[in-house]
Amino acid sequence: MKMKFLASLALAGALGAALPGCVGTPDGHSKAGVPFTKDTITSRYEKPAAQLASAARVVLNRNGKLSLDNSINNTFQARVDQRDVWVKVTDLDGKVTEVVVQARGRATGDVDLAAEISKQIGMELMAQR
């Protein structure tokens, strides 16, 4: 009886130590969640940052609800399929622009959703020609 109790107590302690944590978002804030899970996709394009920001707005509005649109540093936050999605558009030099897409569920990352949003941003960029 004591062994079962101690084993269950040790398991609960191990789970409690592994679960909590904070995860940084592309807009510079932190969110509670399980760290060390893949949740971010980075893409680079030879297009101006303004075009990529416009494409990101369209895609996030199409897939969910855009809740933050910061045009100063080109960061966006949306709620898509009960997950939080952050997009940051950064002009690396005069020719190349980087797009970082991060998607997180209640506690863990959702790299599949991040990849889908990133792909749709690229497709929307091509459709804007």
One letter per element, helices H and strands E, the order comes to: HEEEHEEEEH
Note the total helix count: 3
Care to count the β-strands? 7
What order do the strands of the largest sheet run in, or round the barrel if closed? 3-7-6-5-4
> Low-confidence spans: pLDDT under 50, at least 5 residues?
none
Overall geometric form? elongated
Mean pLDDT: 85
Largest sheet features: 5 strands, antiparallel
Percent of residues in helices comes to 25-40%
Classification by helices and strands: alpha+beta
Provide the gyration radius in Å.
18 Å
Distance between the termini: 70 Å
Query: What is the strand content?
Result: 25-35%
Short description:
By secondary structure, the chain is of the alpha+beta class. It has helices at 2-18, 49-63, 111-127, and strands spanning 22-24, 30-32, 40-45, 65-70, 75-80, 83-91, 97-104. It contains 3 helices and 7 strands.
Task: Write the SSE topology.
Blueprint lengths: L1 H17 L3 E3 L5 E3 L7 E6 L3 H15 L1 E6 L4 E6 L2 E9 L5 E8 L6 H17 L2
Antiparallel strand pairs: 1-2, 3-7, 4-5, 5-6, 6-7
